[in-house]
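Checklist before submission:
- one chain only
- standard amino acids only
- sequence pasted in full

Submission:
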Amino acid sequence: MKTLLEVLQATTEYFTRHDVESPRLNAEHLIAHVLGKKRIELYMEFDRPLGERELAPLRELIRRRAAGEPLQHLLGTVEFHKRVFASDARALIPRPETELLMELVLKEPLPESPRILDVGTGSGVIALTLAAELSMAEVTGVDLSSEALALAGENAERLGLAGRVRWLQSDLLEVVDGAFDLIIANLPYIPGGEIAGLSREVRHDPALALDGGPVGTEIVERLIDQACGHLKPGARLVLEIGINQSAQLVAELERQNYRDIRPVADYQGILRFLFATYG
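Returned file contents:
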């Protein structure tokens, strides 16, 4: 019977051979998940023998992870801005860049009771984070995918925020009424022709959440146009965008009468976010 440490070492080596990023960390997460432990607790149980009852489900998870299935899908959860959200194949796995976007947005001046719209809400991480952090906010999340909205609703229940966010199925702002103090969006921005070349983990995200059109900016540009009729005077539009898309989208914002346009870099120095005021 192998010890926990021996299983951890063997899994790490196996993941390394199969080009799994951060192989030791992935192995620790999966073993902790199967054992119902926190990852840090493994370090106090390295001598624990693991029997077939524990190894059988672990082997299946290891096989799936080595084949490229995302760790978040195997665990069923993802951590985002101090909270744990359900995560599966119904919606895009939130990235660290979007967590940075939340930090930036929460520093922006807003009215005491702002009306906020999250477009392309996916699993709801943006809408629910803003609802949790801004107790007086009226938040709406919209998405074209009914499956993504179902996951967002589950996350709202999970976090005790079911009464705080309204969900709408909509192609961008097609069925949205009223004006908002903040419209925020992390929309698909990858050129369709590049999706086949993405990492195997990213290709597990829904194509609907990845494909931004032939150029990659088409959906974002549609939102820039539609948002004009749904922003209060002086309200902000905030966008997460793709690599090398900043110049084109800044020009489109200027053409649509936005002002105070501010590109902001992510952790890697890539211009990943756009802040703009309308009117």
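Reviewer check: The CA atoms of residues 34 and 54 lie 7 Å apart.
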